[in-house]
Design brief:
By secondary structure, the chain is an alpha+beta fold. The chain is built from 16 helices and 11 strands. Helix 4 packs across helix 15 and helix 6 packs across helix 15. The radius of gyration is 30 Å and the shape is elongated.
Length: about 475
């Protein structure tokens, strides 16, 4: 296939109807001062769907040519930034050009930056896009790189980025993606999202704290990551089934439209996850008057994170997440209809908030299974879980009837995206604590409301730190 964008003489060689792509530079008066022909495309009957419009490679060629034209127009302004010697103040003289790299979203460019010399003290400038702006990578490209690196393994992110441009780019190398992600993570940690005075106070907030163990490269089997998701129950959009008022919770599926997230894999006695959870809650409008409903899956370290909010709000209603209770019972299946019915009997009492009766039923089941060690161990493990979290078991049925939160299923997709999807479900992958923490920091930032407003500052700051 001919690439007509590379054949400006095509119009002289073939008599055919053409599309001509042109970029014009216009001065302040509106007059055209320069006209660049970017390329041509022959207009003919498409023989197949692939013939309609521009091919992928042709689109990249068009973008490249247009970018080159725009950059050419801008470079004169860049080359006039430094006119006097920073040492002696003498006016600088031009001394040729230096080719400087610039990496845009889809294209790479070489920009001619003017070298300058001071004839008096012999000072010489060595200009580049990086020396002028602190980085040669456009922040829009870095944003896409970081978001994909948070969602996929670095090598997979590299392939996706290269597929987008129909070719291979060294700027998308997986090692570079890793370094960029870690630098963005560090920058976010040092320069967190600001808690401003214009944040609307929330009367009620839901706080879900969860965790997961991830295989590690360190001298231990696994490391634990903790996550927090904070949102106002009014910010749930329900879909499917019967429509419910905003803030209600049931089996009807829904989406949290506004939330803030925190995550950490650091071994620092929960200092980082607690401080980030407090900040995330404040970003969602937590004040001394806010009532918090905290959902946890039952681990003591998760409840400990909730404790950090104790003096920052009006009250905290701690609830053992029904989603995880249900999963515990499901995973305790005994493979026998009669035994499973008795297991469900204990769950029936828990659903109605009677932890004592539920534990009694599990104890009775343990007595029946004393001659079956395997099944006994499973039920005893479930019983211990319920006993350890007895004080956090509520009347789930009443809460459901009153459209009150009782399960984490709304935020479970966020938890999945924070830990499981990238880190935990890939069981062949092993993580260093620092590498895991970097991914979690980026993921929590991208999944929070504040990313849309703050990514440019965070990405640009991180790029300059890399440089």
């Amino acid at each position: 296939m001919y690439n007509y964008f590379k054949l400006p003489m095509y119009v002289e060689k073939v008599m055919a109807e053409l599309i001509q792509i042109v970029v014009e530079r216009i001065d302040e008066s509106g007059s055209v001062v320069k006209r660049n022909i970017v390329g041509y495309k022959e207009i003919k009957k498409p023989e197949a769907i692939i013939d309609i419009g521009l091919r992928h490679s042709e689109q990249i060629d068009v973008i490249t040519e247009i970018q080159d034209t725009v950059i050419e127009a801008q470079i004169s302004h860049l080359n006039n930034i430094e006119e006097h010697c920073p040492k002696c103040g003498t006016r600088l003289a031009k001394k040729g050009y230096t080719k400087s790299d610039f990496n845009s979203i889809f294209t790479d460019h070489k920009i001619g930056c003017s070298r300058k010399v001071c004839h008096k003290c012999k000072w010489t400038s060595i200009p580049s896009i990086r020396s002028i702006f602190g980085t040669q990578i456009h922040p829009d490209l870095a944003k896409i790189q970081v978001e994909l690196s948070g969602a996929y393994p670095y090598r997979s992110a590299q392939k996706i980025l290269n597929t987008m441009v129909n070719g291979s780019r060294s700027i998308n190398n997986h090692n570079g993606l890793k370094q960029l992600t870690e630098n963005v993570s560090q920058y976010i940690e040092i320069h967190p999202d600001p808690v401003t005075d214009d944040i609307t106070p929330s009367d009620n907030l839901i706080v879900q704290v969860d965790g997961g163990h991830v295989k590690t490269t360190e001298d231990q089997r696994s490391i634990e990551a903790l996550t927090s998701v904070i949102y106002n129950p009014k910010n749930i959009n329900y879909y499917g089934g019967n429509e419910k008022k905003s803030g209600g919770t049931s089996e009807i599926r829904g989406e949290i439209t506004s939330k803030s997230c925190a995550a950490s894999a650091l071994s620092d006695n929960q200092k980082s996850i607690k401080s980030m959870t407090i900040r995330a809650a404040k970003l969602q409008g937590m004040t001394k008057s806010t009532k918090i409903t905290a959902l946890c899956y039952g681990a003591s370290n998760c409840w400990s994170v909730v404790e950090a909010l104790e003096n920052k709000c009006s009250s905290i209603n701690r609830i053992l997440d029904w989603f995880h209770i249900g999963m515990k019972f499901k995973n305790t299946g005994l493979g026998d209809k009669t035994l499973n019915e008795r297991l469900d009997g204990a769950k029936w009492y828990l659903w109605r908030g009677d932890a004592t009766k539920g534990i009694e039923r599990l104890s009775a089941l343990c007595d029946e299974l004393k001659n079956d060690t395997k099944k006994l161990n499973k039920v005893e493990k479930l019983k211990t879980y319920i006993e350890n979290n007895k004080e956090y078991i509520v009347h789930y049925l009443d809460r459901k009837k009153n459209d009150l939160i009782f399960t984490s299923n709304m935020a479970e997709a966020t938890v999945e995206s924070l830990i499981n999807q990238r880190c935990k479900s890939k069981q062949h992958m092993r993580w260093s604590r620092g590498g895991l923490h970097a991914i979690l920091m980026v993921r929590s930032a991208v999944n929070s409301d504040q990313w849309a407003d703050n990514w440019e500052k965070q990405i640009t700051g991180a790029l300059k730190n890399v440089a």
